[in-house]
Amino acid sequence: MYQARSLRAAIEFFWIGGQQLNIPLYVDLKLNNELLSGFSEEELLPWGINILWSLNQFERCDKHLVVWDVMAASMAFKQFAPRFIYHILSWWLPNLLNISSDGSRSLSNVASRKLHLINIICRRVFLSGTEVDKPDEPKSESSEEEKLWMQLLMRNERELRERLVGFSLSSALCVDDNSATGLRGNGCQDLVGIPQMVQWVRFDRDCVRRELDLLGSEVGRLTTRYVSSKKRLQGLYKCETEEQCSYCSAPVQFESPEFAICRGQRPNVGGSRDHKLLRCSVSMRVCPVTPTWFCVCCRRRASKLAPHQLYMMPGFPVDFMPLVRSENGNLCRKPLCPLCGILMQRSLPAFLLSPSPV
Ligand SMILES: [Zn+2]
Ligand SMILES: [Zn+2]
């Protein structure tokens, strides 16, 4: 059913893509000769309007993020009329392309859904074919333009990660509030990965928001407070600060929210057999060897579902507590990527076709 819907959307988009549909012209798209790359304005204008209309539709949180038709059209224009598609997309995200020195703070008022859409556009259109697995280390061969898109992607992902961590740490504080009277039904399940998140906040103290730093310190203090009754800590938080390698059971240190290196097996000098382990994009814990959810856009994995509230945030919350205590359920019922917003899927063998929402 999911594939059928995607297919129908794609066919409709390509069928109507170049047609003039009398969509209200809420934007004055001036296309000069430099943008047209040999096409006529009459040919490109309907495409530009339809792409903008589609992107605006997907800003509604109740609409599933299945945008591979828009991405396919944008990719084609990137090849044949690159300045045109850059012009269209810059109109849609006008202020975000001006990457300023104040880092992610300028993204505080951008809705999570829009951040997800921008991340997809960055990866699928402007950084397609480049090395974006390690955005912290831009490759020397990247063009200046690609570096800017990479910077934008990194800022967006950090912003979303801070929202996720802020929500999770607030959940931990909320459970502590309730501990005297008992836990909520699925409170424990929400708190997997809290020690890893606290460590991430400590590592990135110079970069994370002050609110997050305070939250991390408060949760860390609570964890320390309960050290004398570790059994209770385990029961409450269902997570351990110490992690083990999924392959050799050696201890694993927290060094990055993306991956971990196990240095447990060193049979002899020069014979290092380090294990590189992926971390869950939701909980930051080392992924188990059991099947996990896989995002076809950012290629991250997750073993836990992100909170539903992450996808609905209109901006960085001033206070997470009302969101944590809201009645809208603590867990998202669908496995959505926390950094791309699309439906994740189980990995399938290469010879099986799998649907791609982007
Ligand atoms: Zn290992
Ligand atoms: Zn993703």
SSE topology sketch:
Blueprint: H1 2-16, H2 33-36, H3 41-57, H4 68-80, H5 82-92, H6 112-126, H7 144-178, H8 187-190, H9 194-203, H10 210-225, H11 230-237, E1 243-244, E2 251-252, E3 259-262, E4 275-278, E5 293-294, E6 301-302, H12 308-312, H13 321-324, E7 345-346
Helix pairs in contact: 1-4, 3-5, 4-5, 4-6, 6-7, 7-10, 9-10
The protein binds zinc ion (2 copies).
GO molecular function, one term: histone acetyltransferase activity
GO cellular component, one term: transcription factor TFIIIC complex
InterPro entries: GTF3C4 (IPR044230)
Q: What's the main sheet like?
A: 3 strands, antiparallel
Domain unit count: 2
Give the proportion of residues in helices: 40-55%
Shape: globular
Uncertain regions spanning at least 5 consecutive residues = 180-188
Radius of gyration: 22 Å
N-to-C CA distance: 17 Å
Number of strands: 7
* Heterogens: zinc ion
Class from secondary-structure proportions: mainly alpha
The averaged pLDDT comes out at 80
Major sheet strand order:
6-5-7
Helical element count?
A: 13
In N-to-C order, the SSE pattern is HHHHHHHHHHHEEEEEEHHE
Beta-strand residue percentage: 5-15%
GO cellular component, one term: transcription factor TFIIIC complex
GO molecular function: histone acetyltransferase activity
GO biological process, one term: transcription initiation at RNA polymerase III promoter
InterPro entries: GTF3C4
Description of the molecule:
This protein has 358 residues and is mostly helical. Helix content is 44%, strand content 5%. It has 13 helices and 7 strands. The strands form 3 sheets. It has a 3-stranded antiparallel beta sheet, with no helix packed on it. Strands 1-2 form a two-stranded antiparallel sheet. Helix 7 packs across helix 10 and helix 9 (194-203) packs across helix 10 (210-225). The relative contact order is 0.11. One zinc ion is lined by residues 295, 297-298, 300, 337, 339-340.
